[in-house]
Amino acid sequence: MLNMIYDISCISFPWDNVDESFIKEPRRWESETIPGFMMKFGPISSIFDIVTYLALYFIICPMLTNGVLFHNLTDPAMQELYIAAFHTGWFIESMLSQTLVIHMLRTSKVPFKESWPSKELLTLNLLGIFFVLLIPDTSIGRIFEFEPLPLLYFGILIIIIL
User: Fold this and answer.
1) Distance of alpha carbon 12 from alpha carbon 7, whole angstroms
2) Is 70 exposed, middle or buried (0-12, 13-18, 19+ CB in 10 A)?
3) How far is CA 107 from CA 5, 40, 58, 104, 137, in A?
């Protein structure tokens, strides 16, 4: 489901703005830069993931299970709640971080300060994020066993991502 929402939110890429400096002259595809790019963004992405995992496991999920960590839970219903909250948090973080990466990769300038995306791309990205944030509180969210998360999660997520 995440990939479908993300793909739909990116469908307007062909109508995105391109920085003037990028189109002044023809550019050559440089595959030699790919390993460096991977070495830079791979570890950064992993750090976001690990910090999010830690926040979910040690802070957010225990808030929903009376302060008890998963490995100490004996009630199957509480274990399911813990797992559902963890999955929900990961689902939301994935959409937000993927969308942020789009805006970092589409320009060599500072996104949203020095270079703005097209209205179409920005609108679809925001709609995708909005939809993902709403899903846990809907019947669709219940089908996928998502759990509404405390507001603290979103504060922590903003700190992690930004």
Assistant:
1) 10
2) middle
3) 23, 16, 36, 6, 35
57 to each of 60, 65, 71, 144, how far by Cα in Å? 7, 11, 10, 20
- Does this model's pTM top 0.90? My answer is no
Burial class (CB in 10 A: 0-12, 13-18, 19+), 92: buried
The band of 39, judged by pLDDT with boundaries at 50, 70 and 90, is confident
Half-sphere exposure of 128 (CA within 13 A, CB side): 27
Cβ-Cβ contacts under 8 Å for 21 (sequence gap 6 or more): 108
The 8-class DSSP code of residue 111 comes to B
